[in-house]
Fold this protein.
Amino acid sequence: MTTFTSKTSKTSKTSKSGRSSGASTAHDFDHAGGEDSMLIGEALIATRDGLIGVESVQVTPPSAGELPTSYDPAKRLFRLSDSERDAVVKAELAETMRVCVTKEILGTGIPEKPGTEGPKKPGTAIPETVEVQTLDHGQNGTMQPVARITRPQIAEFQAALELVAAHADLREDRLPEIHLQMSDLLSFFGSVTPLQPAGYRKTLDMLGSALDFGTLMVQRVKLELGCPRPELLSPQLQPVIQTPSHGSFPSGHATQAFLLAELLVQLRFPKVAAKITQALMSDGSDTQDGRRRNIEDVLKGESKSVPHIYRLAARIAINRTVAGVHYPADSAAGALLGISLARLLVARVKHRDPTETGAALGFAFAGGQYTELDPNKVPVPRNFHMQELLRLITQANQGTSVASILQVADPEPARLFGALWDKAKAEWEERWS
């Protein structure tokens, strides 16, 4: 899983503070706390002595008209340093969230839903289902699930090992991608939609905060479910990169990649995103095939960029199976989790407007049901690719237990993240200027 790098760092060699150590420009300067703070401090002491001398300090109070009459944290946000702004935005995104186990197996002692039975007995069961919940004012301020992830069992992971091994044939072709994507996803998305720092700085800030938020959520889910990596079940897989120390399910890379993809589509192609939502929320009289055709028509007809953005996310996820560190089900779960988290963020941005009525749309995923029938009518694990994801989301709420749609009617507004979103939106609208 990638870790978003500091927004203050430059592409050239940087010093500890993140400033470029190359040639300075007319706008570079330091003050106390910078690299040259001791020298500058001594110089400032001498400057003050020369200007003020022994004069007494004079107080110049602000006039009544200069004092602020109101205080808007969203406007104050852009007077903060990059690192300070990033910290408060991520705090806002996380403060209404909760990750909790809602079902266990191999034992008793935990309620199906929190608060309905006695206390959990430590060590008596393995978590099977985890919910990512958020505050919902539409449900009397209670916590409601925006994503629900149910893990496969060990036997199901074992059955998927042949799929993982089959992906190894692609390693030589994809090794450069695999290595670079260990620490950088945004460069790849910048190849399918503009993300140059000079023109899209606030977009990168917004995406960076969202990526870190997604990492917080998926790492909590991984920790609770504790699913083994492929190499623990077969030493013959021999991953081409070092296997991460955290759990396999769901995939963090898939979560991050689809969170980025969904945010970029929602930000830059909102009409396409709205039509996809409309197709997903169509009533039960629509068939799965009809819903799928509707979404495919939207993807093909509205913008050539949108399919590329989603396909890139799928390729990033698949590369983790090629590397030998993930099962296909990990990617499917991560994709739905990433889309769910992105749609929650967009809903929280929109709900700054008190007249907004659109719900946050998320997904539940049953990992143990992620199978298909082989020629002998025996269930076998499914692979993951873009068409498979399309199948998943179009069959949601269509009488299948693999994927289903969740809704949070009235999520908490995200005013600080929303301020970043507005800046990013303006950057895109002014791209031709």
Summary: The mean pLDDT is 84. The chain is about 45% helix and 10% strand.
